[in-house]
């Protein structure tokens, strides 16, 4: 599917090979030599690629490569995946672990910050490494992984011992990078805990490696309902035909889909781009959930916008398009305060039961209690 045959190195690849997600993983573009075959790199990209070995090394799935514009260094798909020299310039307000996840981690691989829910990091691997990744301290290819069946079992024991936990968010890394059986083992253990009411999975694979959403994966997931899936989407270009097929398979099997978007300078910081992204997500049955202010993670200053940019985006969405297309814009508080919603204020004043409000067009109304 798609027009991958226009890329010379893959022109003779048969469709069924292209559709094999393991083939896509094995054939990721990870070196300067390989990428130079189809992109004319800028000096900054060249330097970024040379330096980015180790954590969060460059890795581009062949599917992702087909979405990149080889002639435009500002292409939003390319910008998110090909490192720049800027990643190695650190600002003074930047941190390795900006949201202090490690501090709120009672056992390795588990973050317990809110009263009734936890975040479980099930793997350190992703199909494609986003240059803006908040978990760049953890995520990437490594010889020895720090997540294994022992750490998962310890996390499951912690959840079982804490009856207040009713919601488990499995993320990483990307949980769909696990084999279907491995992921099923984890889901089985968690859903067997009586007080766990539902599980959600955070993934980017429907976007970066849609071939991973196979019939057998979907059939397995269906057994663990209620199960929700949150998908990381940052730009309308990411919603390829192939991505749509993957989201359809998930939605058709009854899995509710939500989105998470990171506000990124030069990529999606214009209201018209965000509006198109949110509207296009609804067309593929993905309900916009969060827009995140870009965290203060080391080496991401070139991606960050002022907070006012995010507030203005919400201002330009609310009322002007479907309410379903308006996510919540949040700042994940530095130091571990959790997600804090920020947005335009529609309440102008409030006094003795008299509320002065403005609507999306700026007209003033009064509501008296
Ligand atoms: C985002 C997050 C959650 C889930 O938060 P919701 O607002 O319920 O989606 C849970 N734990 C941690 C540590 C998180 O960062
Ligand atoms: S998919 Fe998520 S965890 Fe993986 S590199 Fe991108 S932002 Fe980081």
Can you describe this structure?
The protein has two domains: 80 residues, no CATH class; 197 residues, Alpha-Beta Barrel (TIM Barrel). 30% of the residues lie in helices and 18% in strands. It has 13 helices and twelve strands. It is globular and about 70 Å long. The chain starts with 14 loop residues before the first helix and ends with a strand. Bound molecules: pyridoxal-5'-phosphate and iron/sulfur cluster (SF4).
Q: Give the names of the bound compounds.
A: pyridoxal-5'-phosphate, iron/sulfur cluster
Order of helices and strands: HHHHHHEEHEHEHHEHEHEHEEEEE
- Tell me the strand order in the biggest sheet: 1-2-3-4-5-6-7-8-9
**Largest sheet composition:** 9 strands, mixed
Low-confidence stretches: none
At CATH level 3, the topology of the largest domain is: TIM Barrel
Number of beta strands: 12
Q: What is the straight-line distance between the termini?
A: 58 Å
Can you say what the CATH homologous superfamily of the largest domain is? Aldolase class I
Radius of gyration, taken over Cα atoms and rounded to an integer in Å: 21 Å
How many separate structural domains?
2
CATH architecture of the largest domain: Alpha-Beta Barrel
Shape verdict: globular
Number of separate helices: 13
